[in-house]
Amino acid sequence: MERHEVANTVSGATVGGHVVQARDIGSVHFHDREPLPRPHQIRPPHGPFVNREPELAALTEALGRVGEGGLGVVVFTGLGGVGKTELIAKFTEDHREHFPGGDLYADLEAYRHQGGVDLPELLAGFLRALGTEPPAVEAERFTAFRTATAERRCLFFLDNVEHAAEVRALLPFSGLVVVASRRRLPALRTDGAEVRRLGPLSATAGAELVRGWVGSGRGTDGELAELVELCGGLPLALNAVGSQLLDRDSLPVGRVVAELHGREGGLAVLEDEENDLGATYDLVYERLSAQGRALYHLIGVHPGPFVSAELARAVGVERAERAIKELRGVHLLDEVVDDDDRENRFRAHDVVRLHAYGRTRELSDRGGLLAGVVAYYRGRASVADRAMARRRLRLQDRSGDDLPGFPSGTAALEWLYAERANFRAVVEEAAAQGWHGEVWRLCESLWLLYHGRKLYQDWIATHRLGIESAQWDNRPDAVVRMRNQLARAHHERKEYRLAAEQLALATEQVPLVTDRQVIGVLYETDGLLCLADGRPGDAVERFTLALAENRGDDHGEIVQSYNLAQALIADGRAEEALTVLTGATGRAVATGDDDMLMKLPLVRARAHRALGQLDLAVAHAEDCARQAERRSQYAKEAQAHTLLLALAEELDDEGLAEHSRERLRQLSA
User: Fold this and answer.
1) Segment 158-201, tens digit of pLDDT
2) What dihedral angle (degrees, nearest 10) is formed by the CA atoms of 458, 463, 468, 472?
3) How is 108-171 classified by DSSP, letter by letter?
4) Collapsing DSSP states into helix, strand and coil, what is residue 369?
5) How crowded is residue 44: how many other Cβ atoms within 10 Å of its Cβ?
6) Which helix (H) or strand (E) holds 582?
7) How far apart are CA 507 and CA 510, in angstroms?
8) 463 touches 423 (CB < 8 A)
């Protein structure tokens, strides 16, 4: 059956009566508001910086508007590699103290699929970074974002924007928004934006940049001017060539210029642009070490945007950390800042990725390298899935035991979330390659990520591929699983007709399925649809059937008892619900099912409320809230405090009401 939130610590004790947590004795003092996080997601500048005074002045002018509590928007357009990111990194480093709310970064390319950007998911990342749990309803995230930025001065860097509408949808209430795009976006001027085109460096400025690395004693003015011209005046290319000059004191600038002059053609890496930097990057590539080239091949083959040392090791890159350091040294890789997950990730500029792709198209082992990437993600997703919920139903065999584990379920979830763009790209590439078994197995392991973080667009897109792959793989049980998981996404989005359609299609496979638990998941989802449709009696019937299909599986029986109890309460049978919950709680304690030990008290609280036993309802709701807070399960904690607020009003308990109101404010601030 499909499981809900993730947990990884032992539940606390249930106590009777009201609980007041006071900081001071003598006068009741509720929790102070916890300090809001101050994210720093914009990377530091790489080094010397030249010739961007007008652009920096435009940013400083916009900063003045922000200081008055307003909104400033500055847009920089230009060629890939012209230095837009470096400009914004430099400005951020020099003015970070003006943004007490923090600085946030989003690469829209990582959220772009089939031409559209998953704006609700991008906003969910911003909200979490700002200390706010994003609403489950996607449309509400836009309002929540404006609320969260109403009293905080933040800097937002939106990279790889393609359309003005993308920026408009992401504008905060106040702060500074800086946009980088290869496309001209004049329409944003109607929104008060300053739009500037960033051109290549002049020969003089480019030479100054190179001299900042290699010193004044190497290369004549003419040689440096030629080098700048051959690199198209683009800092990205100059960084790569200049870093190799810096690493080789004996390498004359004139020799590099001569080698570049001697190359004809090459890969045009900037589509629809005049600059052809293939020869420049060919030269950089050929001077890499063997492990550096192997990592570059991985960049060219990997369908997703991020690489890591762990991924590189898994696919056979020797001395992976040294290879990453080498490619960072020549500015082929940048570190990705992530405030939640602690694993170091690196991203190549898309100009570099395109060149790397060209270098790997003719590799004899390209298919094997790609298969290694897919196998790594399938295995690590399986390890993460087991770390989050070791008892849940799985159709696939255990895999990934040769890969590193996770210290907790929370750490596993954060890793999956940080890798979400890679996972979607890998699922799509595996489907394109016809590796059907990998596709549905990946989808099965990603259930807790998609359900827990409400990544609806990724959830729906990957599971459509998962259904098709399970059919090609001749696995009717996997077809049922994929369709059921897709139905749950539609159910949560209140797309009940679409959810019912998926259940009907899944039911066609039931005669071919021998695993009764797989059939039980269909009863479970159908029960949820019955509740949504206002038919609690039918929901009781469905959950009873689901419970019967899970007999003998402890966790399955506990989950279906949890669902059954909710349906019984909705059907006016709260006493029966308490009996069911007592049995489920005893089994959860006996089996150490911490996930359900967190959830069960909230349903018990609702049952006691329905019976008018308000003090008991408060005690159980507080138990759920405490456990959810310890586990960072903020959506579940918010549910508990919402119930506590209603109970406080019924009890006329202003102290309890204020405590829950304050915690709800913290969760939504």
Assistant:
1) 999 999 999 999 999 999 999 999 888 889 998 889 999 988 88
2) 110
3) GGGGEETTEE-HHHHHHHHHHHTT-PPPSSTTHHHHHHHHHTSS--EEEEEES---HHHHHHT-
4) helix
5) 12
6) helix 574-591
7) 5
8) no
The contacts of residue 661 (CB under 8 Å, 6+ apart) are 645
Between CA 520 and CA 240 the distance in angstroms is 57
Of 145-154, 194-203, 532-541, where does the model show the most confidence?
A: 532-541
- Please work out, in degrees rounded to the nearest 5, the angle formed at the alpha carbon of residue 259 by the alpha carbons of 256 and 262: 150
Euclidean distance between CA atoms 666 and 427, whole angstroms: 36
At 609, is the pLDDT very low, low, confident or very high (cuts 50, 70, 90)? very high
The reported pLDDT for the residue numbered 225 is 77
- Angle subtended at Cα 447 by Cα 520 and Cα 493, rounded to the nearest 5 degrees: 85
Predicted pLDDT of residue 247? 58
Hunting for tokens 């989808």 — which residue is that?
443
Tokens for 54, please give them. 């007008």
Rounded Cα distance between 120 and 501, Å, is 25
Supply φ then ψ for residue 251, to 5 degrees.
Answer: -85, 110
pLDDT at 12 over 60: no
Does residue 33 register a pLDDT over 60?
Answer: no
pLDDT exceeds cutoff 90 at 605: yes
Query: What pTM value is reported for the model?
Result: 0.78
Measure the CA–CA gap between 201 and 216, rounded to whole angstroms: 19
Alpha helices per DSSP H over 22-71: 53-67
Rounded CA separation 588/497 (Å): 34
